[in-house]
Specification:
Blueprint: E1 3-4, E2 13-14, E3 17-18, H1 19-54, H2 56-89, H3 98-120, H4 127-136, H5 138-141, H6 149-164, H7 167-177, H8 184-198, H9 205-209, H10 227-233, H11 245-269, H12 276-285, H13 295-309, H14 318-326, H15 331-336
Antiparallel strand pairs: 1-2, 2-3
Membrane topology: Single-pass membrane protein
GO biological process, one term: intracellular monoatomic cation homeostasis
Domain Letm1 RBD: 154-337
């Protein structure tokens, strides 16, 4: 192939075909793409200003919807990085750093609710149906990514209220289980603890530790307790109780062990390194309505929780789910005395 330099020094020529033709073409396409993207951004900004000015309520839904998908896709990327690191470095879930473990735990729960939403929004114009769902059933059908800030506060209170409705049923179940305990000392410790709770007294960690041996086998082991008691425990993890008993036992066992592993990772991480929002979320996940507490109260409560959790074996994990009631039910009462 022969080459020659053009007289105007603008580009080289190969077989009389100028290289600048290809360079100019690709550069032109890139410029067109940038201009198109810029115009779309401008058009989108104008559309959002129009909605905000003329349809403020719809704008809130639209903005929440688009922001929610951005946050969801960001979570997908972060989870992919964590999963890749687990595979390449042979890291098990129980050995993950606290924030990575919490991200995976929350992502799994979110995807259980998000997948139906994503499937609904795929067909053309189906996003309008999603808007309707967001408006009428946001708490039941949408993940927190698609809640407004006010909804996040309100729904957290509503969800906790549903959970708190089971507290006294769980205490009654503990009291009933005491009749099946043969060890006299353990039986007295359990009944004394139940009486304290029903009297509005917040228990000491030592009161709970005194009964830990009851939770590694019958009648209070995670897979050894009666079916009705297990169904009362399901709402503590926001799990449905309308499943066969073996499935309920398996799900409770999995979530309880996951929480125990999360506690161990948090102990390694150090709760003093948590941001305020992370601290409140950690308390909420473990059964406390942290929205009505100041940050020092949340820190005190979580310290009590970790003090107990750090001494539990996996075979005693059932005590952990019951502690969600024992440490939370009367905590606000004690603080208001």
């Amino acid at each position: 192939m022969e080459t020659s330099k053009p007289k105007d020094n603008s580009c080289w020529v190969f077989d009389e075909l100028p290289l600048c033709r290809y360079y100019s073409s690709s550069k032109s396409k890139l410029g067109i793409g940038q201009k198109l993207g810029s115009r779309l951004q401008v058009a989108n900004a104008k559309y959002e200003r129009f909605l905000q000015r003329h349809f403020p309520r719809f704008y809130v839904l639209y903005h929440t919807f688009t922001k929610g998908f951005r946050l969801l896709f960001q979570d997908v990327r972060e989870v992919k990085v964590i999963k890749t690191r687990m595979l390449t470095k042979g890291i098990e879930f129980k050995d993950l750093p606290y924030r990575d473990m919490e991200k995976l735990r929350q992502f799994r729960r979110d995807m259980t609710k998000a997948i139906p939403l994503l499937l609904i929004s795929i067909p053309p114009f189906a996003n309008y149906l999603v808007f309707v769902l967001m408006y009428f059933f946001p708490r039941q059908l949408l993940i927190p990514h698609f809640w407004t800030p006010q909804q996040q506060t309100d729904f957290q209170k509503v969800n906790h209220a549903h959970r708190a409705q089971q507290y006294w049923a769980v205490l009654k179940g503990l009291e009933s289980a005491g009749s099946h305990v043969k060890d006299g000392q353990l039986k007295r410790s359990l009944l004394d603890l139940c009486n304290k709770m029903q009297s509005g007294v917040h228990p000491n960690i030592s009161d709970i530790q005194a009964i830990r041996n009851l939770f590694s086998g019958p009648p209070l082991g995670i897979k050894r307790m009666n079916a009705n008691h297990m169904r009362h425990l399901c709402p503590l993890f926001f799990l449905t109780s309308y499943l066969p008993t073996p499935m309920i036992a398996s799900r409770l066992h999995r979530h309880t062990l996951e929480l125990l592993q999360l506690d161990r990772s948090l102990s390694r991480h150090g709760q003093h390194r948590l941001e305020d929002s992370e601290l409140r979320l950690a308390c909420y996940v473990r059964g406390l309505d942290s929205g009505g507490l100041d940050i020092n109260q949340c820190r005190e409560w979580l310290s009590q929780w970790l003090q107990l959790s750090s001494r539990l074996r996996e075979s005693e994990a059932s005590l952990l789910v019951h502690t969600m009631v024992l440490l939370s039910a009367n905590y606000l009462t004690r603080r208001n005395e």
